[in-house]
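Illustration 12: Mitochondrial glycoprotein.
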Amino acid sequence: MAMFAALRRASSAVIPLALRRTTAPSSSRTFHSVLSTGLLLSGEKATRTVVAPSLRFANGFATKTSADESLVQVLESEIKCAYDDNQSQHVEIPDDFPFEIEDNPGERTIQLKRQYQDETIKVQVDIPNVALDENEEDDDDAEKTSESSIPLVVSVFKGNGVCLEFGVTAFPDEIAIDSLSVKNLDESEDQLAYEGPEFTDLDENLQKAFHKYLEIRGIKPSTTNFLQEYMFSKDNKEYLGWLKNLKKFVEQ
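Figure caption equivalent — predicted structure in token form:
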């Protein structure tokens, strides 16, 4: 500390002296050259002060690089796990599957389409939802079971600008109709059309009749059970692609 104070005093004494000399007619040095002289005379301490910001920047860059490398390593590990899962979840489409499948990589939904007599039937299928249920009979050893489901939107067209649209949730071996409405394709989306009562409020016989209506058009447990497997496989494929895109971005 004493050495530092002595150097600082020497530096403060030299600079005013040099500045005073610049006022003499015989001196040709500029203010900047005098200031440089003062800094040089102040010794090693001034040099360290100049390079310190560069050192801090270098240390920050090294920390960022290290963090990015760690992230890439974790991503690579997760990619390997997702790849192994993807290899074990290959799903074959049954020969008697009644729909054509449109599956675009990068999208979370698939589209199904088929002709039934004079109707065109389109189905949008989303990725599965998995709900955990807990057995609350024993709080200490609660058993957890999972129930998967897939949401579907089934649209039946007859070529007259009107379609019948069902909101459906498909569970293993069970299909639940959540909503039912008649859609006029020419109507503006801003119009709030009457969509009928809740499906569960309909007469029980009417509910059964609509379930049969969907069944003969291909929306039945054998179809939706396959779709559950297919969508689980798609979900894993999309997850794998998402991880690869993340890794590619971090490495850039």
